Structure formats: structure tokens, C-alpha cells
Amino acid sequence: MNPSLWRQAQLNMIYGLFKVTERVYQVRGFDLANITYIKGDRGWIVMDPLLTIESAKAAHALVKQHLGDRPIVAVIYSHSHPDHYGGVRGLVDEADVRSGRVRIIAPEGFMAHAVSEMVLAGSAMARRAAYMYGMFLPRDAQGNVGSGLGIANATGTVSLIAPTQSITKTGQELVIDGVKMVFQLTPDTEAPAEMNTYFPQFKAMWMAENATHTLHNIQTLRGPRSATRWRGPSTCSRRSSCTATGPRSSSRPTTGRCGARRTCATTSRSSATSTSTSTINRCTC
Ligand SMILES: [Zn+2]
User: Fold this and answer.
1) What spans are recorded as compositionally biased (Low complexity) (predicted)?
2) What is the CATH number of the domain that holds 200?
3) 223 lies in which domain range?
4) H or E element: which one contains 60?
């Protein structure tokens, strides 16, 4: 096994509930992706509710146990891949979304791409995921030791509730439950519909899956990603140079100016340059 992947697998085993910075928490290791909780004045803003109802419920129970019972006032989907929205019905009742008690925010084009990938191409995508993630290998040192990006895809029920509001341009701002958010659209990068979110009150930049501790593939079986759109300031916001914390929807966060900038630079440069010109690697998402 590649030593870096072995190291990554060991780090991914550090799981549980983490405080990233003031009013920003994450549950890691319950699914392939992380779920992030932002503490509002009254309730929670939940970012990326994992792949399955079961894993989302388990993560929420952990949050409730340690941080108290607060209502979920909004859910934000960073992008159109199911490990970032599939657990939503484990957290939110659709009736509350329809009545306006819970808002669901996503980047423009989210529904079209989510349906295209997981319904129209759903069977092929499921087979691809089974091979790509080695889902039927034994879980041991000779079989499956992890998926790079996270421990593994959870098995369970995948769900979806349509967004109530789309983010349509970079710089768009929202204030929900006393929390200010500034969005940066990053279409045709890691996903065809994706966005980063900046929290100026907490000096925190949520980089979605645009910056991780792994090397994403550009030439994927589900369609090529745009290396040129992924790299540089178009995706790795210049705001990251002034952030204190960089929580992400996969892998671990980085802190401090250097951490945020280094991760961003490494991800964009390696994804856009190395992969697109020389190699086709095992896809990590
Ligand atoms: Zn993704």
C-alpha cells in the first residue's frame, strides 16, 4: 500500500465529535464525508448531512448528547454528490421544510445534477462505487483499510429533500439564525454544482470537497472534471489567506493562515496539473 494512503487511513480513524472553532463543530468518521454543525442564535445550521439517514441520525445523536438539543434551522448542501445530502431525512422532516421552519440551501443546478447522476445514471454509478470503494473486500489490513477521503461509504438509506433556495452567484450573502455566510460558487470542479462558504464572524472557510487531504481524479468514469476551473483563485478563494480555520466536508480541517493556504495550493496545483497531464489515479470521490 502507498505509505501516504496508509497514513491517511490511520488519521481517518480519529473519529467522533470535534470543535473546529467557536460555534463550528464536526462529526467525522461516521461516513465517507464529514457533517458540520454551525451554532446559530437559536439552533443549528447543518452542512452536508452525510450519505444515509442512519449515519446522519447517529451523528446527530452524538451532537445532541454533548451539545444539547437545539432545532435545526437550515441545511446546506455543498454539492450534488450523495455523500453530502443523502442523510437529510434523518435530520429534517419535509413538512418543516415546506412550512418554512427549515431552509435548505444549495448551489445553482444542484437538483439537475443530483438527479442526472444518481437517478438517470444511478445503476451504473452504484456499480462503479462498489468497485471503486472496494465495498465487498474484507475490512482488514489485507482488504479494505479505507477510502482515502474517509473511512468508507455508509450502507443504509439514501434520501433527498429539494433545496428551498439556490445560491446563484459568488459573493451572495445570507444571514440565518444570526450567522452570516458568504458563498463562492465553484461549478465544474469537484462536482458540476458546488460551492464554498465563508463565515466572517468565525473567520472560517468551509471548502466543501474542493480541498481535501487526498488527490482527486480529473478523468473520472462519471465524466471529466475541469482542471482549469478547479485550480487557482477561482476555487481556492483568496479569503483563505485570512482565515483562521478551514473546515471541510471531507478529511480534517486546517488551521491558521499557512494551513489554509497550503492545503488549498496543494489541492489545486496537484489536481489541476499532475492529474490532468500525466496520470489517471483511482478516484477518491
Ligand atoms: Zn464530492
Assistant:
1) 234-243, 254-279
2) 3.60.15.30
3) 3-277
4) helix 53-67
